[in-house]
Structure formats: C-alpha cells, structure tokens
Amino acid sequence: MFDYFSVFHRKNPLDLVSAHIMAFPDQLGPKLVIKSINGELNRNQHDQLKDAVSGRNDIIIVDSYLSREQLHSLLNECQTYISLHRSEGYGLTIAEAMSLGKPVIATAYSGNLDFMKSDNSILVPFKFVPVGNQAFPYPEDSRWAQPDIEFAANAMRELSSDEGLRTRLGTKAKTDVTSEFTIQRAAEFIKGRVKELSKRSLLRSLRLISKKFL
Predict the structure, then answer these.
(1) Is 103 within 8 Å of 173 (Cβ atoms)?
(2) 160, exposed or middle or buried, with CB in 10 Å at 0-12, 13-18, 19+?
(3) Among 32, 36, 129, 153, which is most exposed with the fewest C-beta within 10 angstroms?
(4) Cβ-based neighbours of 202, under 8 Å, separated by 6 or more
(5) In what order do the strands lie in the sheet containing 59-63?
(6) Tens digits of residue pLDDT in 6-59
(7) Which CATH architecture group holds 2-180?
(8) Which three-class secondary structure state does DSSP give residue 119?
(9) From CA 157, how far away is CA 112, in angstroms rounded?
(10) What is the mean pLDDT of the chain?
(11) Is residue 211's pLDDT more than 70?
(12) Structural domain boundaries of the chain?
C-alpha cells in the first residue's frame, strides 16, 4: 500500500514487481495486489507501474481510496504483506499487517525495525545507494536502502509454499506488535520522556541561576 505523494521511488513498487516476477515467473503462484492512491495525479509514475505489470494476470493494481473497513479487510485477506521500501518513517501498514497475524517481508532498514525482528518477520538485506534526482524533496546526494531483490523473491517463494513458517511468523508478529505497541505503552513512554525533559530543563535553569549569582 502506498500513496504516490509519499514519493514513488521511496516506496519502491517497481522492485516489488520485479521480485514477484522473479519468484513466480510462470504466474502459478499467489497474486500480488498493489494498493495505491493518487495515481491519476502522478500519471508518469503510475504509467511506469502499469507498464511493469503488463502481461501479468497475477498482479493487480488498485488505485483508489478505500474506507478504513475496506483497507482492514484487504489486509486481513492477504497471505503475506511485503514492503521493499527504500526508507520508512514508521511503516504503519507493516505494523497493521503484523497486528493481524500476517507474516511480513520488508527491507531491513528504517522505522520498521522498531517492531520488526528476525524472529517475527523476514528482513530483506540492502545496500546504501544515492537517492538520485527522481525523489524530490529528498537531496540527491543523500543515501537510502536498495533492497536485495533476489533475496526478497526467494523469501516470497518460501512463505508461499511453507504454511508452517507463515503461521509461526504471523503468530509471533501479532504477539509482539499487540503487546509492545499499545496506546498504554505509548502513553507510558511519553510520560517518562516528558518527566526526563522537564528534569533537564530544571537543571539548565538552576545552572543559569547559579552562574548569574556566583
């Protein structure tokens, strides 16, 4: 799932398509569903994606807004969730899929590593590459991850054929995400952080006062 306004090359659907075709060249494996929005407002990139899946009846593009209930249903119906992103802030849809007990394959880089581990998902190795000139507003000379497409394809094949592995990863993913990333845990973290910052602010004020009068 991605929004074209969230930077097409960062979300990296083209490499996902390449990995799927590499994993299932005969089109006899699972279907790949790519859910996007705002493709009509980013016609050049949307056409790139459509060209990449041309002739593949096993790859479905859904470029439209769905209700929260429809999105939840779509995630709940999938066998595996995959994100070959080059960078992520948090990876909300990844976390949502894991909370539903879905095994996830994703790039081993960025905010998703806060909740993705080697025992609850499949992490795709990567190398750092320049961002380049097709990912505004990111600086051209900054770097982000280029996931290993062959590794991802092998992982897709493995999860597709191994129900036991899907169950083990999905169960662990759901347990980890729903126990560690709750509203209560977030509130506890924020409360502790506010206390820490308040204490630091008080100490700075006391130092300034002491310098003024000593």
Answers:
(1) yes
(2) middle
(3) 129
(4) none
(5) 2-3, 32-37, 59-63
(6) 999 999 999 999 999 999 999 999 999 999 999 999 999 999 999 999 999 999
(7) 3-Layer(aba) Sandwich (3.40)
(8) coil
(9) 22
(10) 93
(11) no
(12) 2-180, 182-214
Given phi > 0 = left and psi -120 to 50 = alpha, else beta, which region is 169?
A: alpha
Omega before residue 137 within 30° of 0, cis: yes
Let me know how long the chain is. Answer: 214
Give the sign of the dihedral formed by CA 136, CA 2, CA 105, CA 58: negative
Whether the pLDDT of residue 214 is over 70: the answer is no
What distance in Å separates the CA atoms of residue 176 and residue 102, rounded to the nearest whole number? Answer: 12
> 143 and 129 in contact (C-beta within 8 Å)?
yes
Q: What is the DSSP string of 129-197?
A: EE--SSSTTS-TT-EEEEE-HHHHHHHHHHHHH-HHHHHHHHHHHHHHHHHHS-HHHHHHHHHHHHHHH
Confidence grade of residue 161 (pLDDT, cut at 50, 70, 90): very high
Gap between the Cα atoms of 81 and 178, Å rounded: 17
pTM score, whole prediction:
0.87
User: Residue 138 — φ and ψ, nearest 5°?
Assistant: -70, 135
Question: Residue 186 contacts by C-beta under 8 Å, 6 or more apart in sequence?
Answer: none
Three-state SS for 128?
strand
